[in-house]
Each structure stands twice: as structure tokens, then as C-alpha cells.
UniProtKB/TrEMBL annotation:
Superkingdom classification of source: Bacteria
Name recorded for this polypeptide: Glyoxylate/hydroxypyruvate reductase A
Alphabetical list of PROSITE patterns matching this protein: D_2_HYDROXYACID_DH_3
Sequence ranges assigned to domain D-isomer specific 2-hydroxyacid dehydrogenase NAD-binding in this UniProt record: 107-271
Keywords recorded for this protein, A-Z: NAD, Oxidoreductase, Pyruvate
Iron is among the record's keywords: no
Single GO term (MF): NAD binding
Keyword check for Oxidoreductase: yes
UniProt xrefs under SUPFAM superfamilies: Formate/glycerate dehydrogenase catalytic domain-like, NAD(P)-binding Rossmann-fold domains
Record InterPro entries: D-isomer_DH_CS, D-isomer_DH_NAD-bd, NAD(P)-bd_dom_sf
Length: 306
């Protein structure tokens, strides 16, 4: 068996060094340099080219390099190929802290005061009253984020595809309950997995259902957001502001209007950065599981896409 690494758009020198150290008895190759594609049974992938999958007749396992699997063309895989993803407990804590920091920054008017400082404008104001946070997505990231926000006195409601039951969270589920979930929220946090059903969910129709004082925080995937719809909603005062950490195309182009929009905060996909050692340990464990025909860690339900 050989392991093929096909993680595009980044330098993989450190990753390859750590994988070779963790799997000294396994042949590890970096796409597109592979001696024999017939020997590849395990692929570590993110944004791999679609044409790769048809060239791997003995593929058994695809390991996502991320917490999601939207960087893998699942429809190109054979039915008997298993897919796994990365789960990092620290990632959940980091994500929750990121969301909390931006909710508090808006509530306490940090962006407003930063603008006032630039104009030497002394204008003290009370903190904003809004305290209702709605979280789209109640998986591990959503649950931990809800818990941290709740500890800081925020009222939490959450929405998911199927019904969940989480302590101190008002849980909504399915299309029929989405409008009720959106009604009256002050902050909308997107932590959904990216699937065909959730792609473009942050759109004009959704923005029309939230109060005009609502702040959008997208820390899931850029493809959840219809960017043009957000700009219109902000310009028409249908939303108060947006905090964006993820984008359809990364890095964000220098000419993109998000950079200069007065109601948009841009961060460079840093809400939760996975620890390399954690990633390598899980990849190595699943590579050995593949080699020994044993169960995988964090296997994905391909029917649901996560």
C-alpha cells in the first residue's frame, strides 16, 4: 500500500515530514509525483483535481485534511470507498472563542469606537441591548460555541437539519422551522457543514427574515454565502454588519468589495486553525486502519455529507 497526499494550494513540506515520521514503514508520495497509482489505497486530500479519482483503481480510503469534506469530490468516488475527516477538540474551543469575541466586539461597539478614534471623535455610548444568538448548525462546533456564549449570558437558539436536544439551547430543525429560528435574533452564526442543501443558504431570502440590527458571523464555508446578496442587504440596512472568516475564493482578492466595506469585518480564515500534530496523528491512525482493514476514526456518513 502507498499513501498519496493531494492537498492543493499550500506548501506541504512540513506535512510530508511529519507523515513520514509517523508512518516510517509506509510509502508516502505527494501528488502529482507518484510512481504507481495502482498501489495507492489511501489518499489524504483537499481540493484534489477531479480527474485524480478515476486513476486510482485500488483506492480504499479518502482522508479529508479538514474538519469537513467539501474539499473532496464525493460524487467522483466509487461506492466502496470510505471517507474520514479530522476532528480536533481544540478547534471547537478556538472557534467558540472567535465567535464570542466578535459578538462582544459588536455589542460593546469596538468597531464604532475604532472609527471614532480615527476621527478624534469622543462619543461614549451604552453597550447594545441585543442578546439573542442564533447558531446555524448544531454539530460539535455549534454545540461548544453555544455553551460558551451561554456562559457569558447570551440567549441561544440553534437550527439544524434534524432535531437536536441541547441543554439551554432552543433547538429548531428543518425548513419548516427556519423562519421561526431567524425571527428576533441579534446575531446569526453560521457553523453548518457544506452540503448541496446548505450551499448558498445565506442569501437574500434569509436576510429578509432577520431583524435589521442582526449581525452575520460566517465561520463555516465561504460557499454558504451569496456574496452579492450580503452586499445588497448591508447597503439597504437589512443587516447591521457582517464578520466573515471564510470566502468562496481564498485568499480574498485585493479588489474584493468586502475589504473596504464599512460594515464588513474580514479575517483570513483563522477562526479555528487545526493543530498539525493532531492532524497527523489522526491521518496516521486511519492509514494504519486502512492497512489492517480496521474501522476508521471519524468516518463520514456519505449520505449526509458529514
Amino acid at each position: 500500500m502507498s499513501v498519496l497526499v493531494c492537498v492543493t494550494g499550500r506548501n506541504n513540506d512540513k506535512l510530508m515530514a511529519k507523515l513520514n515520521e509517523a508512518l516510517p514503514d509506509v510509502k508516502i508520495e505527494l501528488w502529482p509525483h507518484c510512481e504507481d497509482l495502482n498501489r495507492v489505497q489511501f489518499v489524504l486530500a483537499w481540493n484534489a483535481p477531479d480527474e485524480l479519482w478515476a486513476q486510482l483503481p485500488n483506492l480504499k480510503v479518502v482522508q479529508s485534511y479538514g474538519a469537513g469534506v467539501d474539499g473532496i469530490a464525493l460524487d467522483k468516488l466509487k461506492p466502496d470507498v470510505s471517507v474520514a475527516r479530522i476532528v480536533d477538540e481544540q478547534l471547537s474551543a478556538d472557534m467558540a472563542e472567535y465567535v464570542l469575541s466578535h459578538v462582544l466586539a459588536n455589542k460593546l461597539r469596538h468597531r464604532e469606537y475604532a472609527t471614532n478614534q480615527g476621527h478624534r471623535n469622543w462619543k461614549p455610548r451604552r453597550a447594545k441591548k441585543g442578546n439573542e444568538v442564533g447558531i446555524l448548525g448544531l454539530g460539535e462546533l455549534g454545540r461548544v460555541t453555544a455553551e460558551l456564549l451561554g456562559h457569558h449570558g447570551f440567549s441561544i437558539r440553534g437550527w439544524s437539519r434534524t432535531q437536536k436536544c441541547i441543554s439551554n439551547v432552543a433547538c429548531y430543525a428543518g425548513e419548516a422551522q427556519l423562519e421561526a429560528f431567524l425571527s428576533g435574533i441579534d446575531y446569526l452564526v453560521c457553523l453548518l457543514p457544506l452540503t448541496q442543501q446548505t450551499k448558498g443558504i445565506l442569501n437574500a431570502e434569509l436576510f429578509s427574515q432577520v431583524p435589521p440590527n442582526c449581525v452575520l458571523i460566517n465561520v463555516a464555508r465561504g460557499q454558504h454565502l451569496v456574496e452579492a446578496d450580503l452586499l445588497v442587504a448591508l447597503d439597504n440596512n437589512e443587516l447591521e454588519a457582517a464578520v466573515l472568516d471564510v470566502f468562496s475564493t481564498e485568499p480574498l482578492s485585493e479588489s474584493h468589495p468586502f475589504w473596504s466595506h464599512p460594515k464588513v469585518t474580514v479575517t483570513p480564515h483563522v477562526a479555528a486553525v487545526t493543530n498539525m500534530d493532531t492532524v497527523v496523528a489522526q491521518i496516521a491512525a486511519n492509514a494504519r486502519a486502512c492497512l489492517g482493514n480496521n474501522p476508521l476514526e471519524n468516518r463520514v456518513d456519505l449520505g449526509q455529507g458529514y
